[in-house]
Specification:
This protein is mainly alpha-helical. Helix content is 82%, strand content 0%. It is globular.
Length: 289
């Protein structure tokens, strides 16, 4: 569900900045400005690029409010069915797939505008972006405790998942925390694998933007390059790594079902209430003009 919030705030910008439904409303109301600020941090936009980004993000935001927020309600209803019912691993995987599909819809809608912006980038802007990505990678590696091996990575994963579980289900008892820790210790942390996938996506991205800057291909070719990139974004092309990625996703789905199973009726009601609040917010935000 946290991925859903990130999608809601456009291009994964403001999700980490907001907590709770009132934060979602505030973040969404300012999503285009927040996204433009984020893009500028990576590219140091020229005045002309800034004007282009401002205009296209305003248009994208209006489209998103009109078409995507109503669609997100269907996903939230699935979430409510998940927390109030007896969900299976297949149900958890279906929820995850629904989030990925909606992310792809955002990417497809934004692709022509991204193509236009990429065609204006200079070498210094691309190197600035590469530097910012490297900084974020170092931050990710520290938080995931990659240098500490599997034990350290499991500890970081436990901390992260406990925070998310308690956001939705409220405070966990000591027994629930111990059970969660045991479940995480029984699985591969997966952190190193997903870090390598993160690096793969970034390498592919930088190859793409450098090619566009160097060769200045026609707009339609840039759009095709972006669509090809999006098609291979979520999962690796290497068959062996694809098997590993799917196994890790299934393990995460199994963990989600296990967390739900050990939640008390009061905790499930708490999650249902939070989802209901989000549904009301999404409904009201979709009607704002």
């Amino acid at each position: 569900m946290r991925r859903l919030l990130r999608h809601l705030i456009l291009l994964l910008v403001a999700g980490p900045l907001v907590q709770g439904c009132s934060g979602v409303r505030l973040g969404y109301a300012n999503a285009d400005s927040l996204t433009r600020w984020w893009v500028d941090q990576y590219l140091d936009l020229s005045p002309e690029q800034d004007a282009l980004t401002r205009e296209r993000l305003a248009r994208f935001h209006a489209w998103h409010r009109r078409t995507q927020l109503p669609d997100y309600l269907a996903l939230l209803r699935q979430g409510q069915s998940f927390v109030t019912g007896q969900p299976t691993v297949a149900d958890a995987l279906t929820l995850g797939d629904g989030m990925i599909r909606r992310g792809r819809t955002l990417a497809e809608q934004a692709t022509p505008d991204i193509a236009e912006l990429l065609s204006t980038l200079g070498p210094a802007q691309i190197e600035r972006m590469a530097g910012r990505l490297a900084e974020k990678n170092a931050e990710y590696a520290r938080e995931a405790q990659l240098a500490d091996g599997e034990n350290g990575q499991r500890q970081a994963r436990y901390k992260r998942l406990l925070e998310r579980a308690e956001y939705w289900f409220d405070d966990f008892s000591d027994a629930q925390k111990a059970a969660l820790r045991q479940m995480i210790d029984a699985q591969s942390a997966g952190s190193q694998f997903w870090y390598e996938e993160r690096l793969r996506r970034q390498r592919d991205w930088l190859i793409l933007v450098r090619l566009v800057q160097r060769e200045q291909p026609p707009r339609e070719q840039v759009i095709r390059l972006l669509r090809d990139y999006a098609a291979r974004f979520d999962l690796p092309g290497d068959p062996a790594r694809l098997v590993q990625a799917r196994a890790l996703r299934r393990a995460s789905a199994e963990l989600a079902v296990a967390i739900h199973a050990m939640a008390s009726p009061a905790q499930r009601a708490h999650a249902e209430h939070k989802l209901g609040e989000l549904m009301r917010d999404f409904t009201e935000m979709s009607q704002d003009r």
